[in-house]
Every structure is written in C-alpha cells, then in structure tokens.
Amino acid sequence: MTRRALLLINRHARQGQNSQAIAQLQKLNLELITENIEDVRFLSEIIESYQNQVDLVIIGGGDGTLNAAVDGLVNTQLPLGILPLGTANDLARTLGIPNSLSAACQIIARGHVQHIDLGCVNGKHFFNVASLGLSVQITQRLTKETKRRWGVFAYAITAIEAMWRARPFHAEIRLNGKTIQLKTIQIAIGNGRYYGGGMAIVHDAKINDQRLDVYSLEIQHWWQMLALLPALRHGRHTTLSGVRAFHAQEIEVYTRKPHPINTDGEITTYTPAHFRVIPRALAVLMP
Fold first, then answer.
1. pLDDT at 39
2. In a shared domain, residues 102 and 144
3. N or C: fewer beta carbons within 10 Å in the chain?
4. In this protein, which residues make up the domain named DAGKc (predicted)?
C-alpha cells in the first residue's frame, strides 16, 4: 500500500539534497507532498496543517531542524522519518540511522516504527540534550559559516575557543527529593545519547530508557577541561574529578539570574527551568 508522506527539507542544511531525496523516496513507493523550508520556525505549524492529509512526516536536515519540528510532531502524533542532512546529525546517530541518503530512505520505506522518549524543559520538547553554561557559549559562537567550512569539527574548534572565556556560575538543582547547591561551568540534561557532534551524555544512555542523564562540570580553570575531553567524548566522564552526575525523571534548575538554555543546539528558554522525561512520546522510523 502506498503511504503519503509530508517531506520537509531545510534548504540551508549543509548536505541538502532535495531532488535526490524525492527521487529515491518515490522509487520506494512513497507518495510525497513536498515543502521546502526557508524558516524552520514555521515547521510545527506546517506539520499541523497537513495532519489529516499524510501518514508520516519526513524531515531532511540536522538536529536544529528536527528540534524546530518536534512540537508539531508531538501535537499530531505522526510518525517521523529522518534524512540526516545536517552537520552533526546527533539524533540520527543515536537512532542508528546512517548518513547515507540512500540508506536513510530505505529505513523510511521499510516502515519499522519504534517509540522514543522526549525531554521537555519549560514546555519545550527536545530529542538529545538540553544544557546551560559553556554549551550556550558554544552555540552562540557556532556560525553557519563555521559549520560549512569545518563540518562536524566545527563543534570541537568552537568549544576550545569558548573554554577560554568560560566562567563558573552558581546553581541550585532539585531532583530525587534532594536540593544541591553547586558552582559549575555547565549543566547538561540528556534524553538521548549523542550531542555536540558525537559526544555522549553518558556511556549507557538510551533514548527509550525513560530517564534523564545529568552532569555538572565543576572545574575552575579552562585547562582542566582538556583532561576531561576524551572521557566526555565517550560518555565516561561521570566518575572523574570535577564532574558530578545524576539520573532522574524530573529536575529543577535555579540560578541567581536567568541563564539561557540550549535544546538540541538552539537557545529556546531560560532558567528557572523544569526538566522532565516523557516516555514513548514519539513514533520514529528507524532500523
């Protein structure tokens, strides 16, 4: 049976391959309604407008594009197919979807659906990780030009630049019935496994484990971060000096003044913040 899909491709995606994707998906017996996206802020609105006309939504772009679409996907409960056409593609990496456009199209055509959890902070859903502190500075410095020029290595280059200027801030975390006062340069709250161009929130994180993985980087000098980087890359940092780690289903974070919060690479809200996991929130086509 032919399925009808809404295909949304971010025209600014680094690896945007519109016509190639359309041709491959049509060969795989998918009927397509195609919208080229100039401004991802309208993605959720577009998805909701097609709610009763399609069987699934296919999104071509990176993590920022998917983050912009997540509220519309939640509201319509349409299954999601992913064409990883961005720079980092951390959600695709978490789900085991390869960067090959042909392979990603095959996964969508097979129609194997699994339900994944979502994170939510102050009413904003996210797939991968939400964070405040150093990561926000990285997001603010990570320009489209940098990503076009350096690809996934842009994250590491920008992170090193941001480390020089990182300053600790005071925060209060409430989770699992405890209140914790800390001084940190970054608090990260993960729903999925990968973020920041392939870094792991913790080594055993899954996007369907119904928990949030949290860590706080409590170091005083930028050079201490260099020693942590290899462990952070593989999610093995949680037992190291200068890192505090937790698991929870809900978390509250308070700061003396409002701090911006980065969700899947986009700044979307501010502290005070209430984080929670929403189990089995979304159907995704995956291996």
1. 87
2. no
3. N
4. 1-125
